[in-house]
Amino acid sequence: KEEAKSAFAEALADGFAGFKAEFDPNSATYHGGDKTAVPLGGGRLPAALAGENPDWMSLPIAPLTIEDSYGPEHEKLVAAREKLGQIKKSLSVLSPPIEAIMRLQKEMEKLEEGDEEGKTSLQSRLNGEATKRAGIMESVVLARDAIENPKFHREVKPVVNEILDRATKPFGDKSSFGEFCVKIQRCTQVVFRLQGELLQDIKKIKKERAKRDAEQDED
What we know:
Layout: H1 2-21, H2 47-50, H3 72-91, H4 95-110, H5 116-146, H6 150-167, H7 174-218
Helix pairs in contact: 3-5, 3-7, 4-5, 5-6, 6-7
């Protein structure tokens, strides 16, 4: 076993020495023995990288791929659907920081008078959860205000506004908080349904465009 270990160590050392020599300018194997300096400025590629086109700078620039435009209505639908997804995602994480705020407020009420250290600690945590809540609400507001869709303004926006208004007000008990969570759940369900409807509208526009293109090709 000792002889095998010794042989392995010797082979490993030889291999490392050979690898190291390839990067030693004084070694005969430096850069594989090719002493030709690679010019700076991109004028010539190393032979190993040149391939079939050594004069790479004279090659034509590949044209940029431009996605097909399906018109402003399509773009509005896509943008609205994306913003609806943002609202749904944000609303799904709104209740945890609110619940944490309720819990920390209860703990604050139970603190003994004069426990400044405990009060400071709880207040810091309260501020952190309030910051989370504010960030989530801001995300909802930004998405809400960016949506240009009649169905959204009619069916979703009023409920979103109710949720945002209620989120910053105190909850008297767990029951009222539970009702708030149910409202969020129902709102996200409506958002999900509207996303599906918008997707169908998007597909319809693409289908009509494909049909027109096919008819033009036939002409």
